[in-house]
UniProtKB/TrEMBL annotation:
Family under the similarity heading: Belongs to the FMO family.
A family per Pfam: FMO-like
Magnesium in keyword set: no
Cofactor(s) the protein needs: FAD
GO molecular function: flavin adenine dinucleotide binding; N,N-dimethylaniline monooxygenase activity; NADP binding
Gene3D superfamilies: FAD/NAD(P)-binding domain (3.50.50.60)
Protein name: Flavin-containing monooxygenase
SUPFAM superfamilies associated with the record: FAD/NAD(P)-binding domain (SSF51905)
Keywords associated with the record: FAD, Flavoprotein, Monooxygenase, NADP, Oxidoreductase
Organism this protein belongs to: Acropora cervicornis (Staghorn coral)
């Protein structure tokens, strides 16, 4: 949305042919920048040279699943926090692009809550380049927003940005990049603008509690959570009361955990939980496998999963360019949550902030305001989707994904899913798009794990 505003403004003023733009990250935000520059190019507009640096081997950001945790093969901290079996916890009608619907991509209406692999394919479209489209009953599938628009050539994969500094005298940026496969720091490149789109769900916020370092079981942060089946038969403590805590608790229950305790700091989530999930006030300390809580009660647990959020981390930016605030709808120093005003002569754009899901009214006003300034051309008021969604979750946290919603732009209502979330274990694109053809299809991610995918 605001990407259009950004590019329109640049195109009208100083950003003309001959300028250079550095985009850091090829996730949904960074790819949105590339998409809109490419759109201007197709309109025969003069655009700058745009270079996107992505430290992973493929695009997608957090939507790209990897089994890796800790560090990757190049010794870099693993960026992704994605886990197997994740399904969208919000309706797709609130996140799909106005000019490219899920229905257009898949060639048919699909339910409102897709699995991760379906959302990833909607963006990149590589699944359909590997599999005959006719098996889906469509002769010529759209190939995903990014593949369809041939955006891959803008990106230097396996290249990590090490340093960005602003040059006051020349009014531009010096950027240091490392080629990871070659283990080589490249010559400094100069750019006129920098878009920071590396995301901020990759550096865990890990609080300390007395005794946690002596805990006899497994302790992880949700960043390293990969497969809920690893917790089958276990007594699990989930620390946190946000969206990750909610979904990981349900995932553990779905895949056979004995019971789950969710512990909260400010207030409980308050859902109508199944009997195997309970909520308790924040833990105070840990003794062996016993966890003591603020209300004086205790419980035995086998594993602890911290769902305690993430830290803003931009170590590659010089200090005057770094955002230091915690998560929130109005980070200090960012004009409208976008333009960094405290360094870089208003030429650094940060593209990875979020608003609290409870603040639907704020989010609606914010997005509507930005889209109007951008002359975006679409009504982006999705409150008609999100208010019912909140009610559905409070009424039935295990089954809210069975509801369907109406597309804001086409007016078409999505079909109802055939299998409830808690009973659905096949998260492949093929099965989700064609549940009537269920035949044990292997998901693309499974193919990757056994060596058939890239």
């Amino acid at each position: 949305m605001w990407t259009s505003k950004l590019i329109q403004a640049f195109n009208r003023s100083e950003m003309l042919l001959g300028k250079r733009v550095c985009v850091i990250g090829a996730g949904p935000s960074g790819m949105s920048v590339l998409y809109h520059f490419n759109k201007l190019r197709k309109q025969d507009k003069d655009i700058p040279e745009v270079v996107c640096f992505e430290k992973q081997s493929n695009w997608g950001g957090l939507w790209k699943y990897s089994e890796e945790t800790g560090t990757d093969r190049y010794g870099e901290p693993v960026h992704g926090s994605m886990y197997r079996g994740l399904w969208s916890n919000g309706p797709k009608e609130g996140i799909e692009y106005p000019d490219f619907s899920f229905d257009e991509h898949f060639g048919k209406p699909i339910p409102s809550f897709p699995p991760r692999e379906a959302i990833y394919d909607y963006l990149k479209g590589e699944y359909f380049s590997r599999n005959p489209a006719t098996i889906y009953g469509v002769a010529d599938f759209a190939r995903g927003r990014w593949t369809k628009n041939k955006l891959r050539h803008w990106i230097r994969f396996n290249h990590v940005v090490r340093q960005v500094t602003f040059n006051d005298t020349t009014n531009d940026f010096s950027v240091v990049i490392k080629n990871l496969p070659e283990n080589k720091v490249l010559p400094v490149e100069r750019f006129d603008f920098v878009v920071v789109a590396n995301g901020h769900f990759s550096v865990p916020n890990m609080p300390f509690f007395p005794g946690v370092d002596q805990f006899l079981g497994r302790v992880i942060h949700s960043h390293d959570f990969r497969n809920a089946s690893h917790f089958k038969g276990k007594r699990v403590l989930v620390v946190g009361a946000g969206l990750s805590a909610e979904d990981i608790a349900l995932q553990c229950l779905k895949y056979g955990a004995k019971y789950i305790i969710c512990t909260w700091r400010s207030k409980p989530m308050g859902y109508n939980w199944p009997s195997q999930i309970t909520e308790k006030p924040l833990l105070t300390k840990i003794e062996g496998n016993t966890v003591l809580f603020r209300d004086g009660t205790s419980a035995e647990v086998d594993d602890i999963i911290f769902c305690t959020g993430y830290l803003h981390s931009y170590p590659f930016l010089e200090k005057r360019l770094q955002l230091k605030n915690t998560n929130g709808p109005c980070p200090e120093g960012l004009y409208k949550g976008l333009l960094w005003t405290r360094g870089g002569n208003n030429k650094v754009l940060v593209q990875n902030l979020n608003c609290p899901d409870q603040k639907i009214a704020f989010w609606t006003d914010y997005v509507t305001d930005i889209s109007k300034e951008a002359e975006y051309g679409y009504n982006l008021d999705a409150s008609s989707v999100f208010y019912p969604w909140v009610k559905h979750r409070m009424a039935d946290i295990t089954n809210y994904r069975s509801h369907s919603f109406t597309n804001l732009f086409t007016g078409k209502k999505s079909p109802v899913t055939k299998t409830p979330f808690m009973q659905e274990f096949d998260d492949s694109v093929h099965h989700f798009v064609n549940p009537e053809q269920r035949n044990g299809a292997i998901s693309q991610d499974d193919n990757q794990l056994i060596g058939f995918g890239s």
